[in-house]
Amino acid sequence: MEIQGRIIEKLPLQTGVSKQGNNWSKQEYVLETVESYPKKVHFDFFGEDRINQYNLEVGQFIKLYFDIESRPFNGRWYTSIRGWKAEPADPNAPVAGATVAAAPVQMAAPAPMQGAAPAPAPAAPYAPQTGIVAPAADFGNGSTDDLPF
Predict the structure, then answer these.
(1) What's the chain's Rg over C-alpha atoms?
(2) CA-to-CA distance for 29 and 80, rounded, in angstroms?
(3) pLDDT tens readout for residues 66-114
(4) pTM beyond 0.70
(5) What is the DSSP code string of 24-39?
(6) Based on the number of CB atoms within 10 Å of its own CB, is 31 exposed (0-12), middle (13-18) or buried (19 or more)?
(7) Rounded to 5, what percent of the chain is helix, strand, coil?
(8) Distance CA 74, CA 77 (A)
(9) If we measure between CA atoms, which residue out of 3, 1, 69, 48 comes closest to residue 30?
(10) 8/73 Cα distance (integer angstroms)
(11) Three-class SS of 68-123
(12) Separation between Cα atoms, residue 125 and residue 117, nearest integer Å
């Protein structure tokens, strides 16, 4: 999967030692997408080799390639976004999956089944009514409001 956006936060480097005695490190970031409704996405690079290879800084506009993984812990599910590649991107380039206006699609009518009754005629197109609308009825309490509350 991939996503484009600007790095808005670089979290502190996390390090530790696994049960097998191997050192590990993880660098976490927050990316903000450039859309009509921007989204903030928390992701990480795991392993010192990837952290050094993709040394991202706040303000960079990137295309992030990632995998999503979920796992249970103490009866709850946790999801992480693990980056595996990052490359510089143009903030003015169109984003894949962005909304693009398209011409309406005309669907073909299905072929009638053999022995089936003929299909009903299509409904007439909607035509808004014009003219004067009658006022609401008087409900005996001097109000013309027909709402129950």
Answers:
(1) 29
(2) 12
(3) 999 999 999 999 999 999 999 999 888 766 554 444 445 555 555 656 6
(4) no
(5) EEEEEEEEE--SSS--
(6) buried
(7) 5, 40, 60
(8) 8
(9) 3
(10) 29
(11) EEEEEECCEEEEEEEEEEEEECCCCCCCCCCCCCCCCCCCCCCCCCCCCCCCCCCC
(12) 24
Task: Return the amino acid letter for 43.
Answer: F
CA dihedral for 85, 90, 91, 96, sign (positive or negative): negative
Residue 63 identity: K
Tokens of 95: 């984003």
For tokens 């992701």, what's the residue?
A: 43
24-51 pLDDT, tens digit each: 999 999 999 999 999 999 999 999 999 9
Residue 132: the pLDDT is 61
